[in-house]
Amino acid sequence: MGSLAQLNHYYLKYKHLFLPGLLAAMASAAASIVVPIVVRQAVDTIPRMVANYRAFEGTPVGDYLYARFFAVLMGFAGVILLLSFLSGVFSFVMRQTVVVASRHIEYDLRNRLYDHLQRLSHGFYLQHATGDLITRATSDIEQVRRYIGPALMYTTRAVVIIVMAMSVMFIISPVLTAYALIPMPFLGISVFFVARMVHQRSDALQEQYSELTSRVQESFSGVRVLKAYARESAEQAAFEKESAGYRERSLDLAMVDAAWRPVFLVLVGLSTIIVVWQGGRLVTEGAITLGNIAEYIIYVALMTWPVAAFGFVISMVQRAAASMTRLQRIFDAEPEVSDGVQTNEELKTVQGSVTFQGVSFRYAEDEEPVLKDLSFHVDAGTSLGIVGRTGAGKTSMIELIPRLLQASEGRVLIDGHPVEAFPLAVLRGSIGYVPQEVFLFSETIAENIAFGRMDASEELIDRAAEEADLLANVRDFPEGFKTFVGERGITLSGGQKQRTSIARALVREPSILILDDALSAVDVQTERNILGHLRRHFGRRTVVIVSHRISAVQDADQIIVLDDGVIAEQGTHDVLLAREGLYANLYRKQLLEEELAAMV
After folding, report:
1. From CA 342, how far away is CA 418, in angstroms rounded?
2. Is the CB of residue 156 less than 8 Å from the CB of residue 305?
3. Stretch 568-581: mean pLDDT, rounded?
């Protein structure tokens, strides 16, 4: 249960809700405990009053005794109703404080988790499925909330009822109380074993739920690929397998719960039978009254829910402990890239020069490096083109600039300063990055473009869309920039999504603009239009273009050819063509492909 200790500071934060709530729980339990005492007095008093009335029935004294009997009866009923009302009021206050506090903590915990997830580096997401993270942010936090609120509430009320009830019962008759408690040790043992089984099954259930969620999330995200390859049946079979696993674990947990309930009811019922049996003997001996038996039966009934609550609470605690352990693994994860001791808070702006000094990079210590000893310099305001075969390391290379990845060896410099010296907010706020895999949010086109700069004016959004050669398409849409693009931009074509992503980067007016194969989904003419607009930025900001097409980089001030993680060639378009190397071969091959395409 050590993981649950991480929640202690939340109790202090919301003590203004927890303290009144726990006091209300105690008051509610105390009011419930007094009811059996009133019943006992009624049971012992009313028969004597009835006997006295019968003795004087039909006389003025009898009429007086009847009126007194009715008044006393109404008095007992009124007191019981008042106590029940007070118990209900205090129970309401208890829920409106403790449960509300648990919702506040749930809110804080979920926000903390989301904030931490956003700070974690790219490598973390390579190791954790999206569905699993969604499960932790929803189901796991809900399990923790149940422990914080209902479990604490039930426990407090149960402890007060059991302690007070047993105290009164011992005062009345230690012997009868001892008999009534005979089944309790067996109940405690059964709860202990049930708790262990619930913990194991709850943990397995949560793990399976994560796998099921991941499968659903992945299927819906790739639904167009599924349909294109007619894989619906195969995917349905895979989903049914995961769903069957979840069902089996759910039924396993339900079986434990179902088996424990009859045992619990038998043991509690056995206590009632013992009370009536032994209590009747004590009544005949004059040790207790008939009202005491009624009082004992009510106390046993009152303790039924609290004792049952312990079973529920133990289950809640076990589930919460498993869930909090899973959450804590995320909280304990440290971002590979963050502001650190090298960060210089005085660096507020970026001019745009980029330098690589002997840079190597590998994704894991035991893997071969993806990039090997890269060294080059790009002046601020100039352009750099990067070409190379698929898998050459182009994307890994440019992701080192905004510190999406961290160099394993060597140094990456911006304006002569190590990238680690810049606060991440300053560094990334000065870079417009268009990734290879375009991601659009389920918002309007305008909101997706303004995501790069939330305070962007309509004029700035229009200009960014025009430079990305998107404006004409947007004007053709019935709702223009207010058109919703759907999840991941599903209503737009591949080229429109890429151009929206380019506009998102341009609207930032960044010092460094990075395009990672951002023109692969557009035709040649659209590419020329976009590159024509981008040339306006040459001299004003550093532009880095990664592309498979030579035509996209041939006007760059310098071009780097990557091959198997190393710089194979470097120079201008004309210089590289004259060398008759890898770049020249790629250029001629693409020219031939364009000619063949034109002939067709």
Report:
1. 9
2. no
3. 87
Structure tokens at 352: 């745009």
The model scores a pTM over 0.85: no
- In this predicted structure, which of 62-66, 307-311, 511-515, 543-547 has the lowest mean pLDDT? 307-311
Token pair listed for 36: 């059996």
Q: Where are the domains of the chain?
A: 2-24+94-332, 342-430+513-600, 436-509
Q: For residue 356, what pLDDT is reported?
A: 92
Taking Cα atoms as reference points, which of 181, 170, 175 lies closest to residue 282?
175
Q: How many C-beta atoms surround the C-beta of residue 480 within 10 A?
A: 13
pLDDT band at 539 (very low <50, low <70, confident <90, very high): low
- The answer to whether the 342-430+513-600 and 436-509 domains have the same CATH topology is yes
Residue 501 · residue 518 · CB < 8 Å? yes
Cα separation, 407 vs 337, whole angstroms: 10
Copy the structure tokens of residue 65: 């005794």
Beta strands in 381-448 (DSSP E): 383-388, 409-414, 417-418, 431-434
Residue 404 φ/ψ, nearest 5 degrees = -70, -30
User: Pick from 190, 549, 555: which is nearest to 387 by CA?
Assistant: 549
Enumerate the β-bridge partners of residue 414. 354, 417
Q: Which residues contact 553 (CB under 8 A, 6 or more apart)?
A: 385, 386, 387, 545, 547, 559, 573
- Residue 242: CB partners within 8 Å, gap ≥ 6? 208, 211, 212, 215
Mean pLDDT of the chain: 80
At the topology level of CATH, where does 436-509 sit? Rossmann fold (3.40.50)
CATH 1.20.1560.10 fits 2-24+94-332, yes or no: yes
DSSP 10-75: HHHHTHHHHHHHHHHHHHHHHHHHHHHHHHHHHHHHHHHHHHHHHHTTTSHHHHHHHHHHHHHHHH
CATH superfamily of 342-430+513-600: P-loop containing nucleotide triphosphate hydrolases (3.40.50.300)
Q: What is the DSSP letter of 538?
A: B
Residue 192 confidence class, pLDDT cut points 50, 70, 90: low
Which region, left, alpha or beta, applies to residue 469 given φ > 0 means left and ψ of -120 to 50 means alpha?
left
Residue with tokens 């349909």: 227
